[in-house]
Design brief:
The chain is an alpha+beta fold. It is built from twelve helices and 21 strands. Bound molecules: flavin-adenine dinucleotide. This is NAD(P)/FAD-dependent oxidoreductase.
């Protein structure tokens, strides 16, 4: 009987354990938290964007680092495979905008409950509150040390995650273990992270959510990225889907980066001017601050007027042509200076990790240490939002587990 130990009960470790289990082995997951899937619980704002429903070939452009490495793993364990598994244990799901898949209940806890059911059904043991400190391999056996307990195994999967949101348990232990086994770890950087901006309006704008707007990142006046969709103002700056996406294009060590927001991307300058002139005719006797409600959300109006250098109390019928053109210009190009990206602990995902050059892409086995495997975010792979990162965790976990199962049956 072979012994398999998986460190980490995130989606990668869980899938590795599920795929590894056969009657010829014991599979044990060691997890330092008091429950499984602590990060999974907060995914998709508590709704868990389980995966993406697009065809697998559409996943590769969404993977920012080492997409080719994922080829075999993704085709061998697809989005439909994880959905079929979860569905077979009773989880209903739905597909939303951008092919993002969510549990039908909108509760990530239901995904975790389903994983718990599967682990129980397959007789996979989970030891919670077990923080692994040190690992070594002697005479073909892995010795795995917790604070007080010691474990031995024939196969070991390291699925300890990256270093973002460390309160969920991902504190970089796996990188340390891998280094001790002679693996290289590429530089760890934040990916999909909010932006800090310099602005006098943060207090007024905090909590304001803007939909259907266009955000551009400009370096030395050159646009390096444009994103359309939703953003949110926070106490430090900007967050929300398009900000996280755009954060990946922000170059390191560059000053003079401007974030420009087009509040009306669907209207060109002329159409917007006509629209404003119609509103001005309708509200000609009002103060300008009360004449823009049809066009802009309330909290934005004083900000846009200040940026356009127009007195809020000026009567609409006294607004000059120059002032109107300045207003249009601000609406199409509301500018903020970027101070920087928020720290890695606030990033959705860690860019960088255990180098893929030292891992077999078909099995996730170490090319340096036999029977040692890696899975999930601990590896140097990261993707955009949309369910792709979780799919990477399942697919790499599955690849590792499948290889262990085959070896256990030999
Ligand atoms: C706020 C937020 C929202 C997200 N939303 C989505 C989304 O909707 N869809 C999507 O695709 N991706 C999303 N992601 C990314 C996704 O959560 C991760 O890519 C995924 O969880 C990585 O899985 P993993 O199993 O590799 O690592 P993790 O989920 O981080 O799991 C690693 C586990 O290992 C345990 N561990 C670590 N060290 C030790 C140790 N020494 N001993 C024992 N146990 C240890 C940890 O406690 C943890 O439970 C989101 C991330 C964040 C932060």
């Amino acid at each position: 009987m072979k012994n398999v130990v998986v460190i980490g009960a995130g989606p990668a470790g869980i899938l590795a354990a599920i795929a590894a289990k056969t009657i010829n082995n014991n599979v044990l997951i060691l997890e330092k938290n008091e429950k499984i899937g602590k990060k999974l619980y907060i995914t998709g704002k508590g709704r868990c964007n389980i995966t993406n429903y697009s065809p697998i070939e559409d996943f590769f452009p969404m993977i920012n680092s080492n997409s080719k490495f994922m080829y075999s793993a993704l085709y061998n364990y697809t989005n439909m495979d994880i959905l079929n598994l979860l569905e077979s244990y009773g989880l209903k799901y739905k597909v939303e905008r951008g092919n993002r898949v969510f549990p039908y209940s909108d509760k990530s806890s239901d995904v975790i409950k389903t994983f718990n059911k599967i682990l129980l059904d397959l007789n996979i043991k989970v030891k919670l509150n077990e923080d692994i400190r040190y690992i070594e391999k002697q005479d073909d056996v892995f010795r795995i040390y917790g604070k007080t307990n010691k474990y031995e195994s024939d196969f070991l999967v390291i699925a300890t995650g990256g270093i973002s949101y460390p309160a969920t348990g991902s504190t970089g232990a796996g990188h340390k273990f891998a280094k001790n086994f002679g693996h290289s770890v590429t530089k760890l950087n934040p990916s999909l992270v909010p932006m800090e901006i310099k602005s006098n309006y943060l207090k007024e704008l905090q909590g304001v959510s803007l939909k259907n707007i266009e955000l551009a990142v400009k370096v030395d006046d050159n646009i390096i990225c444009k994103e359309f969709g939703e953003l949110v103002f926070t106490h430090f700056g900007l967050s929300g889907p398009i900000v996280l996406k755009a954060s990946n294009s922000v170059p390191e060590n560059k000053n003079n980066i401007i974030i420009s927001i087009d509040l009306k991307p669907k209207l060109d300058l002329e159409t917007l001017d006509n629209r404003i002139q119609r509103d001005f005719a309708k509200y000609s006797n009002k103060n300008i601050e009360n004449a823009l409600d049809d066009l802009l959300i309330k909290k934005l109006i004083p900000v846009v007027l200040k940026e356009s250098k127009i007195n809020c109390f000026k009567k609409v019928n006294q607004i000059t042509r120059e002032e109107r053109l300045r207003l249009i210009n601000t609406i199409k190009n509301l500018k903020f200076e970027l101070v920087g990206l928020r720290p890695i602990k606030e990033a959705i995902i860690t860019k960088g990790g255990i180098s893929v050059r030292e891992i077999n892409p078909k099995t996730m086995e170490s090319k340096k240490i036999e029977n040692l495997y890696f899975a999930g975010e601990v590896i140097d792979i990261d993707a955009m939002t949309g369910g792709y990162n979780l799919q990477i965790a399942y697919s790499t976990g599955y690849a590792a587990g499948k290889s262990i199962k085959e070896k256990s049956n030999e």
